[in-house]
Amino acid sequence: MSIQPSSHDTRYAIRLLLPWLVGTFVLVFVPMAASTLLSFVRWDGIELSDANWIATDHYELLLGIDDKQPANDNHPQVAVPHRSITEYTLARKALWNSLVFAINAAPLNVAFALFLAVILDTPLRFIGVYRALVYLPHVLGGVATILIWSWVFNPTFGPVNTLLRFLYDLLDPMVGMLTGQGTSQWLVPGWLSSETWCKPAVIVIHAWTAGGSVFVFLASLQGVSPETRSASLLDGASTWKRFIFVTLPQLTPAILFNLVTGFAAAMQSFNYSYLLYNRDQNDGLLFAVLYIYRCAFEPPYRIGYASAVACTLFVILFSITGCLIASGRKWVHYET
Amino acid sequence: MRIACWILAAVCTLCWMLVDTYRHYCPPANDGRTLRFSHFGTYQDFRVWQELIQAFQTRHPEITVKQEYVVGWYGLYDRKLRQQCLAKSEPHVALVQASSFLTLAQQFRKLPVDGQLPFDNLNDSAMAIYRVAGIPKAMPVTGGNLLVYYNKNCFAKAADFHGTDIPFPQANWTMDNFAATARQLTCDFDGDSRTDQFGFWQPRWVYYQPFLWSFGADVLDDTGTKWSLTTESAAVALEFYREMRCGPDRYVPLPHETSQIIQDVAFLTGQTAMCVNGPWFIPLLEASKRAGDYGVANIPIGNAGRLTRVTWDGIAISKRISSSSLSSAIAFLQFVASDEGQHILTRTGRALPATHSAREALRNSKQRDTIQMFIDALDYSRTEPQTPLFRQLDLAINRHLVQYLQDNVDMEATEFLNTLANDPAILSLTEISR
Amino acid sequence: MNRASIILVVLVLALPLVFAALLAVGPIEDVYAFPARILPSNVEWTNFSDAMKRLPFIRFMLNSVVVACCAATGAVLTSAMAGYAFARLNWRRKKFCTLLLIAALVVPAQLLLIPQFLLFTNLGWVNTYKPLIVPAWLGGGAFNVYLFWQFFRTISRNYDDAAKLDGASHWTILTRILMPMSKPAVATVALLSFVYHWQDFQKPLIYLSDFQTYTMALGLRMYQVTGGGWMNLVMAASLIALIPVLVAFLILQKHIGAPKIFNHDVPKC
After folding, report:
1. Alpha carbon distance C44, C22 (integer Å)
2. Confidence at residue C260, expressed as pLDDT on a 0 to 100 scale
3. Counting one residue from A and one from C, how many pairs have CB atoms under 8 Å apart?
4. Domain shared by B229 and B370, yes or no
5. C-alpha angle B189-B194-B200 in degrees, rounded to nearest 5
């Protein structure tokens, strides 16, 4: 094995790496720099000569330091004269929604995946089939399944509320005995159409697709060394204790990995918001990416402001990921 | 040899990747024979326009029409059209609606008034909305007005339930007749204290406009610049609106009782016995094997008589069109306004023809009495005042109405009208007009 | 006990699809029956053909298959190439490239959306499939490169050396020896990128405007927009849209489950 780079290898490597290198520069790093630059510019994305350097105005607007909204419409004769959805202040709400969603959805997904992995980590017959079935929702997620789930959560006719009503009826005599008043006055949640319940509903939809992380956990579980397992068995540790003190520490690298990737994915989710957000009802499902999309691709095309929101999203994502990884030093147990 | 293969592959890939770029910057010269036409609507609308274009091309084999269809309702299409106008890549000919035409009108050229287009044959009120400073900027093609649909099965079921006869709506029924009928139609068949059949439903305020007008109120004055939903009759109309869904014997479902259901389906499945809708509802009813089960009634007469809302789709020609394409565009417009074109567009009942002759032909065809109802109702139909701020108003009114029309909120109509008039969106309307 | 709990979990996960299937075969009246009924009052198989007829569904499906297959092929090929270079070759600035790879791994795709759109618009690629396919042929994402790199690392270099003695080039080693030996990685990347492009909604939404070029995801959205109330047909259409992904999954699934990758090389972030 050669340690020193050889010129033959270099020549060959460049050929193999060429597509990837082009992709990385043209589609990742240049756009990243462009995005940062665009956020300091007021521009509708059409004629480059219309672009105005406005320094940090967009960020001041976003952070609420300066609430003076600029007249951005370069083409008032064609621009849509309403500011309803892409109103500047809604950006904060959108970022907040994404953050709340990701902070709840990512750990929940990890916990659910961990649970699935633990019950699937047994040498049963047909275990491969069961694993495949658990993995399937991860593959099937998408527009089709979001449409299906939106029906499942329908407040009047959906199965979830039908089940809830059934439970209310079951509980009615018991609650009536305890409090003197039955469950007939209890309301079922409005789920996707209610400001309070829309996020829990979307988090459940998201948890359904946790199968992807299950495989990472399963792989790590098989790495748990048999020696430690049998040693703890000899010690007479209970199943639960064994899980907490032996298995779980060895899973921590996988937990961190899933948490970081899951958080990034949740922060950037678009489909839930695009398909389920209804501006006539409330803004609870307006996620940052939908905001960016509408801000940039709908009149009056605030490309600059959308970029500023995108950069802010990146900063939030990056700092939270950084915190997670830094905290990992305390709780992640790497095999040496 | 091998290197030659690689180079060949690389060149091919580059060519493939750059061919669109070349086309983007050096578009093939348009000889005026290819006409781009864009429209919106459902897939069924797409099919109707496709048929029209085929018929046009058999008449004019020298012209090719490229159909650019934007899926969905007007809002999305409108945004796309503006996007294209900004990029100077809008289609030569575009279907437009009146609601936001004012702010788009500058993008379209003045239509020739030298008799090439049959303006005399077109509906006057429809012509009026597309005139800017007296000059037509779009030609109306089809229209639709709102009337009350009623489900005959629901009447029968309610009559069975109450043990009384419930007559179908009369030609000259009043608001009180309407409310009484709707109340009778509202039934809880199985006695579980959840209403199974509602008398009436209209999900968005624009469907309430005919009622508002019939009570003598309107959101804007005729110039479209002044907020006028502040009058006594407005309070009466809104009180009536609130009674519908919050009164002691309400007959309109509350929002949580109808989430994720669209009006069409609620009516089709018998959850609501009556609804306000346009002629575009007819093909859907026919397709769902429910033809004959429904009827169409006039808007009930209110304090100010009877008025309903009509909207006209129009066709406009881009101001950037080349002179060679212009003659093709005019030919296309002529064909759309011809009896043959109008027949294709309105045959299924999805819309009313804009020309007098096509309307007379339809009236005389004795095809379906429901369509007759809509044509007759054109006599008391009006277009809504136009404003560039239509979307903004629409959103503001909707959001306030949601507050007002809740059963747990106790608000006087006058109080509601006050808060609405002070909404920033509505205040900005008066600012702009000033 | 364990088996029972597994079966229970699988059943719970399958419930939404079961609801969808029951809705899809029933008449529209069942959808809005209250209280909700579990079994359809009348099985109407015609719902499926109706759902396909209301929109040019076959067309959308073919568009999606073309896009997803082209993109998946490109992703497997180019990311395997880059992965090979990382795993087997020593070249100048390798450290720098490794840093680039890790950096590209953490850049959120949404940050790149607007500049990429400006780039593709100015290339004149709007309303073609190029913005969807070409990026996959340019490395197919940092994660896939990383996956191949880590997988190739687990394969002993003795195979390469033996082949080299026979005079095989790097290209031959990659395509004839390493790729066949890393079926799990190939299957995982192929499946993930097929599924990604099949489900991708945002990019087609931005780049495709001609209705004839729509992919399945956009087509389903069309359903929601113009016929949202016909829930039985929407469900039928959604279920049909799941079939190709299911087929891809069934073909590739027995190769998937590349435990080794994550076993040793969960990235030590």
Report:
1. 11
2. 42
3. 279
4. no
5. 80
Residue A33 lies in a domain: no
Q: Is residue A70 part of a domain?
A: no
Q: Residues of B336-360 as b/e, b for ≥16 C-beta within 10 angstroms?
A: bbbeebbbbbbbbbbbbbbbeebbe
Contact A80 B103 (CB under 8 A): yes
Q: Is residue A8 part of a domain?
A: no
Domain assignment of residue A167, given as a range: 156-189
Chain B partners within 8 Å of A193 (Cβ):
255-256, 259-260
Structural domain count, chain B: 2
- Of C28, C56, C226, nearest to B42 by CB-CB distance is C226
My answer on whether B295 and B361 are in the same domain is no
Co-location of B221 and B90 in the same domain: no
Residue A331: its pLDDT value, please?
85
Which CATH number is A150's domain given?
A: 1.10.3720.10
- Residue C130 to residue B20, Cβ atoms within 8 A: yes
**Residue at a domain's end among A143, A165, A189:** A189
For C209-229, what is the mean pLDDT?
Answer: 81
C121 Cβ neighbours under 8 A, 6+ residues apart = none
**Per-residue pLDDT tens for C97-141?**
888 888 888 888 888 989 999 999 888 888 899 999 999 999 888
CB contact under 8 A, A299 and B104: no
Domain endpoint, select from B367, B382, B397: B382
Q: Scan residues 61-100 of A and list those with Cβ closer than 8 Å to C.
A: none
Chain C CB contacts of B69 under 8 Å are 211
Which chain B residues touch A if contact means CB-CB below 8 Å? 78-79, 82-83, 85-87, 100, 103-104, 106-107, 255-261, 388-389, 391-392, 395, 398-399, 402, 425
CATH of C57-215+242-265, one of 3.20.20.10, 1.10.3720.10, 1.10.240.10, 2.40.50.100: 1.10.3720.10
Longest dimension (CA), chain C: 75
CB C117, CB A329: distance < 8 Å? no
- For residue A80, name the pLDDT band (cuts at 50, 70, 90): very low
- Across chain B, what does the average pLDDT equal? 86
**How high does pLDDT run on average in chain A?**
82
pLDDT of residue B366: 60
Closest residue, chain A, to B193 (C-alpha): A184
Phi-psi region of A182 (alpha: psi -120 to 50; beta: other; left: phi over 0): beta
Confidence check: pLDDT of B267 > 60: yes
What is the tens place of the pLDDT at every residue in B362-406?
877 766 678 888 989 999 998 888 777 777 788 788 878 877 887
What are the helix (H) ranges across chain C? 2-24, 28-31, 46-54, 57-88, 94-106, 113-122, 130-137, 142-153, 158-165, 170-172, 179-181, 183-199, 202-207, 216-227, 231-252, 259-265
Q: How far off is chain C from B20, nearest CA to CA, in Å?
A: 6
Q: Is A23 domain-assigned?
A: no
Note the pTM of the prediction, 2 decimals.
0.84
Asked whether residue B24 is assigned to any structural domain, the reply reads no
